[in-house]
């Protein structure tokens, strides 16, 4: 039996010092760690979907540029064509939909209907452009300056379900203008352009970024102007998701001198929205990509103003707030995206494990010391009994044998370097007891 145990211990020792066994153990440990990583912190997807708008719109074009930036980091963005903000919210909030992000116009969403959506950041201004025929406002000197002047006029408030319709309705309600007090028409932007051009319409609301190519269609309509919101500050105070933006003369078109003088308009914020369980790494990647795109959107906003944490409908994601305030994390600033992702995930597991195991190692060491003390106490009890009976010459030989057995046990005791003093003190005390036996004889 003794030989079998010795052979087993020898075999185990040989395996422990076998390089192949060490390599296999290392691979198994890494596999276990990455298995835990995969379960506890799943990696961000390499294919994502983003709902935008119509192909000719700025949302779609923004999505295409974002797609190009993300491709550099090995992430494929599928740009989903949609009817606009309302359609995007429906897609993003639908559990059966696989849309991950969406572009949303500020001031449109009913937050109670979408409790699991968050803002990633404001991307650019989307002003409320109010185009009008001066001839329809002869009584007011040919100028439209406050919305109360719309009473009795033919007004396009945007097509049903569009962001323009939602925002124009909010402005009209705040201005205490009932539907019956104006001849409202729910027209698409193309229909509004056609009717303004033919004289069948007096006013048209349209919400779109200054960079949108569609605005150029209004430049060709002779005799129309853009409204200056004289009460802009009052609207912004009542509708916090709006901003007041100054538009210098000729900003939209220098060649066509649009607008023909400096004006102020109200503006919503085009916002990138996602689900509240979005991967922090993916969120960081999306925001980082927008920093490379948005410098070209500078006709109304100041350089560096976007992405922004203001003018948002949905609550800002915690990680997005940190990113917008402090920039990308150390890892994402200095490492390629996927390298940073895996290093970050590894750290998220290793640090908690260290928090658990470091105290555990301390407890193990304390337990080992306690057990050692118990062993030493038992041996000292035996030595004390031998020393008390040292004068009994009949037990002299028996005591010497007991001391020899104690010495052998002590010799095979596993003692750490920190306990070496106790070990050598014990050996000295054994020798003292032996000398006491011999002197007593």
Entry keywords:
single chain, 441 residues, alpha/beta, D-Maltodextrin-Binding Protein, domain 2, 2 domains, 10-stranded mixed sheet, 14 helices, 10 strands, 14% strand, rod-shaped
Short note summarizing the structure:
The chain has 441 residues and is an alpha/beta fold. The chain has helices at 2-16, 19-40, 58-71, 85-93, 163-174, 189-198, 216-219, 232-238, 280-293, 318-326, 330-334, 337-388, 396-411, 420-440, and strands at 47-51, 76-80, 101-105, 117-132, 154-156, 183-185, 203-207, 225-226, 243-247, 263-275. It contains 14 helices and 10 strands.
Plain-language structure description:
With 441 residues, this protein is α/β, with parallel strands linked by helices. Helix content is 48%, strand content 14%. It contains 14 helices and 10 strands. Strands 1, 2, 3, 4, 5, 6, 7, 8, 9 and 10 form a 10-stranded mixed β-sheet that branches. Mean pLDDT is 81; it is low at 12-17.
Q: Runs with pLDDT <50, length 5+? A: 12-17
Structural Rg:
39 Å
Cα end-to-end separation: 42 Å
Structural class computed from helices and strand pairing: alpha/beta
Strand content: 5-15%
H/E element order: HHEHEHEEEHEHEHEHEEHHHHHH
Main sheet attributes: strand count, strand direction, barrel closure? 10 strands, mixed
- The domain tally reads 2
From the 3D structure, determine the CATH topology of the largest domain: D-Maltodextrin-Binding Protein, domain 2
Topology:
Elements: H1 2-16, H2 19-40, E1 47-51, H3 58-71, E2 76-80, H4 85-93, E3 101-105, E4 117-132, E5 154-156, H5 163-174, E6 183-185, H6 189-198, E7 203-207, H7 216-219, E8 225-226, H8 232-238, E9 243-247, E10 263-275, H9 280-293, H10 318-326, H11 330-334, H12 337-388, H13 396-411, H14 420-440
Parallel strand pairs: 1-2, 1-3, 5-6, 5-7
Antiparallel strand pairs: 3-10, 4-7, 4-8, 4-10, 9-10
Helix pairs in contact: 2-12, 3-9, 9-10, 12-14, 13-14
């Amino acid at each position: 039996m003794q030989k079998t145990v010795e052979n087993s211990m020898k075999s185990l020792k040989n395996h422990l010092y076998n390089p192949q066994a060490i390599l296999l153990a290392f691979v198994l440990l890494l596999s276990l760690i990455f298995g835990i990583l995969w379960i506890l912190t799943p990696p961000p997807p390499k294919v994502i979907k983003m709902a935008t708008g119509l192909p000719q719109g700025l949302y779609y074009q923004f999505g295409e540029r974002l797609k190009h930036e993300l491709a550099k980091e090995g992430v494929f963005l599928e740009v989903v064509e949609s009817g606009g903000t309302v359609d995007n919210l429906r897609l993003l909030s639908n559990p059966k939909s696989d849309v991950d992000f969406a572009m949303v116009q500020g001031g449109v969403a009913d937050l109670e209907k979408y409790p699991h959506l968050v803002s990633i950041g404001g991307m650019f201004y989307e002003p409320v452009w109010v185009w009008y025929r001066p001839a329809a406002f002869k009584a007011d000197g040919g100028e439209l300056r406050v919305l109360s002047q719309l009473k009795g006029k033919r007004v396009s408030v945007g097509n049903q379900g569009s962001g323009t319709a939602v925002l124009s309705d909010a402005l009209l309600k705040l201005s205490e203008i009932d539907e019956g007090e104006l001849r409202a028409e729910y027209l698409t932007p193309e229909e509004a352009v056609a009717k303004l051009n033919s004289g069948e319409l007096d006013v048209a609301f349209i919400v779109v970024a200054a960079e949108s190519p569609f605005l150029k269609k209004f430049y060709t309509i002779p005799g129309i102007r853009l409204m200056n919101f004289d009460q802009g500050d009052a609207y912004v105070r009542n509708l916090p998701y709006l901003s007041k933006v100054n538009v210098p003369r000729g900003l939209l078109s220098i060649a066509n001198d649009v607008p023909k003088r400096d004006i102020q308009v109200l503006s919503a914020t085009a916002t990138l929205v996602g689900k509240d369980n979005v991967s922090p790494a993916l969120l960081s990647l999306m925001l980082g990509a927008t920093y490379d795109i948005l410098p070209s959107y500078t006709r109304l906003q100041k350089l560096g103003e976007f992405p922004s944490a203001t003018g948002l409908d949905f609550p800002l994601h915690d990680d997005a707030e940190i990113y917008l305030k402090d920039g990308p994390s150390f890892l994402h600033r200095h490492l390629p995206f996927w390298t940073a992702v895996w290093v970050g995930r590894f750290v998220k597991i290793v640090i908690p494990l260290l928090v658990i195991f470091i105290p555990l190692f301390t407890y193990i060491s304390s337990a080992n010391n306690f057990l050692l003390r118990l062993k030493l106490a038992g041996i000292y009890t035996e030595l004390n009994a031998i020393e008390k009976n040292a004068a009994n010459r009949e037990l002299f030989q028996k005591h010497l044998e007991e001391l020899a057995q104690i010495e052998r046990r002590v010799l095979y005791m596993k003692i750490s370097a920190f306990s070496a003093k106790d070990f050598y003190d014990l050996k000295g005390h054994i020798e003292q007891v032996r000398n006491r036996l011999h002197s007593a004889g």
